[in-house]
Design brief:
This protein is of the alpha/beta class and about 290 residues long. It folds into 2 domains: about 160 residues, 3-Layer(aba) Sandwich (Rossmann fold); about 120 residues, no CATH class. It contains 10 helices and 9 strands. Keywords: ATP-binding, GTP-binding, Nucleotide-binding.
Length: about 290
Amino acid sequence: MTERIRTLVLTGMSGAGKTVAMQSLEDAGYFCIDNLPPILLPKFLDVVGQSGGRISKVALACDLRGGEWFEPLLEMVKQLRLNQSLELSIVYLDASDEVLVRRYKESRRRHPIAPSMTLLEGIAKERAALEQIRNAADVVLDTSHWRPNRLKQEIIQRFAEHQPRMPVHIVSFGFKYGIPIDADMILDVRFLPNPYYIDDLRPLTGEDERVFEYVMQWPATQEFIKRTEGLLQFLIPEFRKEGKSHLVIGIGCTGGKHRSVAISCYLAQSLQNLSDIQLIHRDSRREG
């Protein structure tokens, strides 16, 4: 039996968090389209059904920005629910009038469907127009008291097949070539004895066993690794919980060839069960 295509129709009040929700669904592996006119839903999903299983999860944001094209949404959903190949749900995002007004004030935006009205008049007009949709929704999420990260967590927990692992990039580098501009954390290992001053180790890198063993033999190295592992084992889950999408940890020595490479290799191996670890040696092959 062919697996049913999980289809989410995301709608609701402007300012209630549809952008964050769509970004979260995209991170969870959904094929996302924003502001699709409801009349095009059947044709689009027909195309998805012909993808040979390459697309199995779809999220479609539809709201009153579509004007008169939005009106057939409920009728389109009723028709689509007759399609046995689809598992379709309406997800409605809502928030209190007070919160919506505050969000508009903070973003300095006019109401998208009633730009000539006051914010409260525009919100009231939109709420009345969406009443039937809200009543028909399978899931209603009130984001009034949620920060964006809380909404992201809720979307992932409800609609992701599994909690995506946060990618962690461990980047070895040389301070002489500059700090990685995308690094979230920088760890400096220039306090360790430098293999550069050992003639037969100088041409090698921290990936070579002899250099690795040289760097790892020192009590200071072992103490640094112990403390760093403990710190990262605490921080990585906390960053993930806070909604961080990825983490870049820079580990630097003078030239980025020996000490930083060896330490990065060790940490990438020891932390691999904690997250999706990706190891990058930025400067290890530079000359000089």
